[in-house]
């Protein structure tokens, strides 16, 4: 399959690089700075599988038809990316790889639903410089039809990606996608503080906020009647057990998990966007809890406050101190 990866951030660059390394026909669609760096110096990958450089064709937009397009931009950039490349995507299978649950609906405004496959990325990567990506930790890539039942196209894409990643096909991918929001929901904290995940969650009071995010989010999801489904690398039981514990005890366990997540500093997708001077996907992660709360007459004051704080950081380019963040949180909820 002739493949295009649209978006040269952490996930897109890693996917394109590993597929190219397996000998696949891949073009990487990148913004100008990344395109120039990759075409001049190669795509630099480091981390979980070692340090190496991949020679790959990087372009600003598609100039020919492809069989598969992996859409690896953030949700807020989906429509612009599709419009710019639509002429060469009408017959392609399009695989979405965004966090949250809204990307497929946006994509379906331009691409026939039968051409859309959705996915969940469970591996971790960081990209703060154009043309350079750190593979922080291994993890699966879960595929499934966004609209309808899994079919031969899903199997074809699964086989392709399986050459470079641990791939599985989900029968109920939407239940898993909603659970993935919980996995990503604590990315807002390092984004507010401007520090790595490991540094942010080395503080017990900050870790308590993480557990409170999950407790509030789970209450909203339950009121919305959404059934969560375990992920291969994140069983639903982990969420339900931690949220059922007293917050201090759960926060202590959460600290250990986050500090051992990666040897290299892990910044999370939201902070990576901010550091690159771009808007983040906060409205599609913590903001999803807020929107569901409004729709189903629930409450999500903590997630609403944290979403607002991330937007403030985006606008002012000034991070909060740990004390400022904790003080702001205590104004809207009572931590145990």
Account of the 3D structure:
With 336 residues, this protein is of the alpha/beta class. It is 46% helix and 16% strand. It has 15 helices and twelve strands. It folds into two domains: 3-171, NAD(P)-binding Rossmann-like Domain (Rossmann fold, 3-Layer(aba) Sandwich), CATH 3.40.50.720; 177-330, N-(1-d-carboxylethyl)-l-norvaline Dehydrogenase, domain 2 (Orthogonal Bundle), CATH 1.10.1040.10. The protein has helices at residues 10-21, 32-41, 78-85, 103-107, 152-161, 173-185, 188-193, 197-200, 204-223, 236-244, 247-259, 268-275, 286-295, 301-316, 322-330; strands at 3-6, 26-29, 43-47, 52-54, 57-59, 68-71, 93-96, 116-121, 124-129, 132-137, 140-145, 166-169. α9 (204-223) crosses α11 (247-259) and α9 (204-223) runs parallel beside α13 (286-295). α5 (152-161) links the parallel β11 and β12 (166-169). An eight-stranded mixed β-sheet has the order 5-2-1-6-7-8-11-12.
Structural class label: alpha/beta
Strand content: 15-25%
Spatial strand arrangement across the major sheet: 5-2-1-6-7-8-11-12
Termini separation: 53 Å
CATH superfamily name of the largest domain? NAD(P)-binding Rossmann-like Domain
Query: For the record, what CATH class of the largest domain applies?
Result: Alpha Beta
Question: What is the helix content?
Answer: 40-55%
- Give the helix tally: 15
User: What does the average pLDDT come to?
Assistant: 96
The domain tally reads 2
CATH architecture annotation name of the largest domain = 3-Layer(aba) Sandwich
How many beta strands in the DSSP annotation? 12
Which regions are unreliable across 5 or more consecutive residues at pLDDT < 50? Answer: none
* H/E element order: EHEHEEEEHEHEEEEHEHHHHHHHHHH
Overall shape: it is globular
CATH topology of the largest domain: Rossmann fold
Question: Largest sheet, if any?
Answer: 8 strands, mixed
